[in-house]
């Protein structure tokens, strides 16, 4: 964590979450790995106390539900994988049939990018000038972790688990 305040760059999303706090029928989900992500205000005091530079970086906007993970990308992909797996849950299927009728299960590709698609996406973002969130460099990495050595393997492992 580089202890920089980037709240001026994420103001619109922050405002959406703040408005959602006023509307009980809207549920918010935050995904975070360091304490500064939108929704991590749910554990803001813990971030301030336990994370280096916590006083500076702690998010102040809470989510109703929070997924805390080693890398935020992995948390988002885990949610997508869980939604895919939920299709095979008999209890979920019963409630879904009652609510919206029978449905045909969708393929994993509707939930998770293939390894090739994810790599293409990361290369494209890097080419556009996006930088690694930890190193600040324009490189093929996610939070300081080499894309091919670490990130791609995690994504593949996740797909292997849900396709089993």
What does this structure look like?
This protein has helices at residues 11-21, 44-50, 54-57, 72-86, 90-100, 115-127, 147-163, and strands at residues 29-32, 65-68, 141-142, 145-146. It contains 7 helices and 4 strands; from the N terminus they run H-E-H-H-E-H-H-H-E-E-H. The protein starts with 10 loop residues before the first helix and ends with a helix. The mean pLDDT is 91. The chain is mainly alpha-helical and 164 residues long.
DSSP helical segment count: 7
List SSEs in N-to-C order: HEHHEHHHEEH
Envelope shape:
globular
Beta-strand share of residues: 5-15%
Main attributes?
single chain, 164 residues, mainly alpha, two-stranded parallel sheet, two-stranded antiparallel sheet, 7 helices, 48% helix, 7% strand, globular
Summarize the structure.
This protein is mainly alpha-helical. 48% of the residues lie in helices and 7% in strands. It has helices at residues 11-21, 44-50, 54-57, 72-86, 90-100, 115-127, 147-163; strands at residues 29-32, 65-68, 141-142, 145-146.
Layout of strands and helices, then pairs:
Elements: H1 11-21, E1 29-32, H2 44-50, H3 54-57, E2 65-68, H4 72-86, H5 90-100, H6 115-127, E3 141-142, E4 145-146, H7 147-163
Parallel strand pairs: 1-2
Antiparallel strand pairs: 3-4
Helix pairs in contact: 4-7, 6-7
